[in-house]
Design brief:
Number of helices of chain B: 4
Order of helices and strands of chain B: EHEEHEEHEEHEE
Shape of chain A: globular
Number of strands of chain B: 9
Radius of gyration of chain B: 19 Å
Number of helices of chain A: 20
Largest interface: A-B, 19 and 20 residues
Radius of gyration of chain A: 25 Å
Distance between the termini of chain A: 70 Å
Bound molecules: thiamine diphosphate, magnesium ion
Mean pLDDT of chain A: 95
Strand content of chain B: 35-45%
Oligomer: heterodimer
Largest sheet of chain A: 6 strands, parallel
Helix content of chain A: 25-40%
Helix content of chain B: 25-40%
Structural class of chain B: alpha+beta
Chain lengths: 580, 164
């Protein structure tokens, strides 16, 4: 088959089985856009800002496990995409981002719309390529998909100069069936000796704890994690990125850990004697002060990325490998072993944990005359039967959603955990809805975050994507306000949002339905009404209590046992520890 | 502790900046860095001299291995190895006495005078960094116009080799 470079780009996507390309045209990619025009296998989704394209592709990828694909032009197209690339990078999400580049002969001359896309993106991609010849496009695309989706996934940028996509130059095309890269061979199987060692530790544990993260979701190991946890009957806590991999309703689940994690999860982390970290990377929002992190525990760490191991925390039994494979091997090894978990010790441990849990650290004032953000999330959970795809932005609303929407399945909770990118929620929801046409998709957001990618309301209309926007409007950058209240004596510097738009009218002007809800009694009814509008995007502006804070909270630099709790929520203490 | 890290890396545009970028982004220190193509033209060999705690050196190793273009990494300071650095020193030797002194020092340090133009002598010297430092110290009476050092390279002794 003879094709031009531009056609090869698109044909490669077809051969890779790509359904959607999220993009925005411009000079350097016009040849490629012409190749898009002449076909219908790959659907192009025209966003309104390149950041939106990357987040939408990212939402698609997170909710399906398949790579998201982005196409943008050179210069400002590429720089606008960087925030989304970095977002995907920090959460290990597979993306292939095609950036146009100026004609080869102009590279380095400060040509119109020239930036060094490979240089700019280098620190926030898994890998990137500058393609020099049309003959190399197909193989580079294959490599890009291979690298993005294998090992620890991540974004790959393919920078393509305009001249090599010239429609008048046709060359032979064949998409490589396989690709091998001698310098790139991720480890999949865990080392058997290490697995045996880990199992010995696990079986000797008196106060064990499973701490699982986004790696479990990425490796599609939810079933294996569930089997492993239930086989042992050990308590499990999940990171913000891992929520849903183990069902929240499972009796072993202690909820989320870390800065805004549950009291029981954090206390159990602090007191455990054996920690099994699975596809989690000991992020500072999870560990708190490292000096005080799991001071009594022997640590087992399973991760596909060797550089994640012993990066922040020294571990006793490192296992490099794909979480799914390692969990299968560990479960097998456990079954073979004659030793069984110490049932007596475990019972005692659970008793302690249950005491911690009995305080219900996630309580809030249910009799408030104002709408409490937590209440909206709880009602959202009810109205969607706990079975929606939920994206979020960044701030208090994100934490409230993580705390109050119990996720039963993986890939249902879509948020920017690593980079914490405001503006992620709406475009990500569009990507999710495209991937799951009949599913219920909601974006929980704040009035500050939503304005960072609000233009994508227009994309939603163009492609009939009936996502529901649940905006918890506290008229503040709530999370910023909370830190200012706690650590800056309530000096609310630049965190109050004056001059907010009328969101109902705004939604309407974009062709959607807008609603404003300001009474607790109306919350359920409004949600029910909105979700009944199956083919409409409904923008719900919930006017919430301005001063609500996210609890529990571990201040930066504090240990897991030094949580701030709402006064009314302090549980009956059974251990010797004090509460901050 | 000082470590010498040897890297085999794809001989491609941008490979060097990936390594250099990694060190600056993660705040690792680079004492010196040398790079040249190997006998296999598709591969470059890079030598980085760095220092840091055990943990940092372990992370450097892992992070380098994580770069897609990197084929192999070895910390050659872990075993017996040979280290060499090349230096050229240009000195002003108008006076006969300083010429004699220069020749004498070059002999002692097993250096060679490789260029003489207009009473300007250039001495070439290879060895471990400390030897080069000592030579410069010894030269203190002679007027140094310019020095250039390659940065260290190294190789493991015996059978051990960085190969694919
Ligand atoms: C792009 C970006 N800029 C700044 C921040 C810092 N930041 C984190 S939360 C937050 C406030 C978010 O406000 P809002 O969307 O209203 O959510 P709320 O906390 O009120 O629920 C800010 C500014 C960020 N995370 N991302
Ligand atoms: Mg807000």
């Amino acid at each position: 088959m003879k094709l031009s470079g531009g056609e090869i780009v698109i044909q490669s996507l077809k051969d890779e089985g790509v359904e959607y390309v999220f993009g925005y045209p411009g000079g350097a990619v016009l040849h490629i856009y012409d190749a898009i025009y002449n076909q219908s296998d790959v659907e192009h989704i025209l966003v309104r800002h390149e950041q939106g394209a990357t987040h939408a592709a990212d939402g698609y990828a997170r909710s399906t496990g398949k790579p998201g694909v982005v196409l943008v032009t050179s210069g400002p197209g590429a720089t606008n995409a960087i925030t989304g690339i970095a977002t995907a990078h920090l959460d290990s999400i597979p993306l292939v981002v095609i950036t146009g580049q100026v004609t080869s002969a102009f590279i380095g001359s400060d040509a119109f719309q020239e930036v060094d896309s490979v240089g700019i993106s280098r620190p926030c991609v898994k890998h990137n390529f500058l393609v020099k010849r049309a003959e190399d496009i197909a193989e580079t695309m294959k490599k890009a998909f291979h690298i993005a989706t294998t090992g620890r996934p991540g974004p790959v940028v393919v920078d393509i100069p305009k001249d090599i996509t010239d429609p008048s130059i046709k060359i032979d095309y064949e998409y490589p069936k396989e690709v091998s890269i001698r310098s790139y061979n991720p480890t999949v199987q865990g080392n058997q000796r290490q697995i045996k060692k880990a199992v010995e530790l696990i079986l000797a544990a008196k106060r064990p704890m499973i701490y699982s993260g986004g790696g479990v979701v990425l490796s599609n190991a939810s079933e294996e994690l569930t089997a492993f946890t239930q086989q042992l009957g050990f308590p499990i806590t999940q990171t913000l990125m891992g929520l849903g991999a183990y069902p929240a309703s499972g009796k072993e689940s202690l909820g989320m850990l870390g800065m805004h994690g549950t009291y029981e999860a954090n206390m159990a982390m602090h007191d455990c004697d054996t920690l099994i970290a699975i596809g989690a990377r000991f992020d500072d929002r999870v560990t708190g002060e490292l000096e005080q992190f799991c001071p009594h525990a022997k640590i087992i760490h399973i991760d596909i990325d060797p550089s994640s191991i012993a990066k922040n925390v020294q571990v006793d039994v490192p296992i490099v490998g794909d979480v799914k494979h390692v969990l299968v091997d560990m479960s097998k090894e456990l079954k073979l072993s004659k030793t069984k978990p110490d049932a007596k010790a475990l019972e005692k441990w659970w008793k302690q944990i249950n005491t911690w849990a009995s305080g219900n650290c996630l309580r809030y004032d249910r009799n408030s005359a104002l709408i409490k953000p937590q209440f909206v999330v709880e009602e959202l959970h009810k109205v969607t039967n706990g079975d929606a795809f939920i994206t979020s932005d960044v701030g208090q609303h994100q934490m409230f959603t993580a705390q109050f929407y119990p996720f039963e399945k993986p890939r249902r909770w879509i948020n920017s955990g690593g980079l914490g990118t405001m503006g992620f929620g709406l475009p990500a929801a569009l990507g999710v809805q495209l991937a799951h046409k009949d599913a219920v998709v909601a974006c929980v957001t704040g009035e500050a975050s939503i304005q960072m990618c609000i233009q994508e309301l227009s994309t939603a209309l163009q492609y009939n994507l009936p996502v529901k926007i649940i905006m918890l409007n506290n008229r503040y950058m709530g999370m910023v306000r909370q830190w200012q209240e706690f650590f800056y004596e309530s000096r609310y510097s630049q965190s109050y949002l004056k001059a907010l738009p009328d969101f109902v009218k705004l939604a309407e002007s974009y062709g959607h339905v807008g609603m404003q809800i300001d009474k607790p009694a109306d919350v359920n009814g409004a949600l029910t009404e909105a979700f009944a509008m199956k083919d409409k995007l409904v923008f719900m502006d919930f006017v919430t209590d301005q001063t609500e804070n996210v609890y529990p909270m571990i201040a930066a630099g504090k240990g897991h046992h030094e949580m701030h709790l709402q006064a009314e929520c302090i549980p009956v203490q059974s251990s010797d520890r004090e509460l901050a | 502790m000082r470590h010498i890290i040897s890297i085999l890396i794809e001989n491609e545009a941008g490979a060097l900046s990936r390594v250099a970028g990694l060190f600056s982004a993660r705040g690792y220190n680079i004492e010196s860095l040398t790079v040249a193509v190997t006998e296999d033209a598709s591969l470059s060999r890079m030598t980085i001299v760095t220092s840091g705690s055990e943990n940092i050196i372990e992370q450097i190793n892992k992070q380098l291995n994580k770069l897609v273009d990197v084929v192999k990494v070895a910390d050659i300071t872990e075993g017996a190895h040979i280290e060499r650095e090349l230096m050229m020193v240009k000195v002003d030797a108008k006076e006969a006495a300083s010429r004699d002194e220069l020749q004498r020092l070059a002999d002692i340090f097993k250096g060679r005078i490789i260029d003489v133009s207009d009473n300007i002598f250039t001495v070439e010297l290879t060895g471990e960094g400390e030897k080069l430092d000592s030579f410069l110290k010894a030269l203190n009476d002679v007027l140094i116009i310019e020095t250039v050092r390659s940065g260290a390279t190294g190789i493991a002794r015996g059978k051990k080799a960085l190969q694919i």
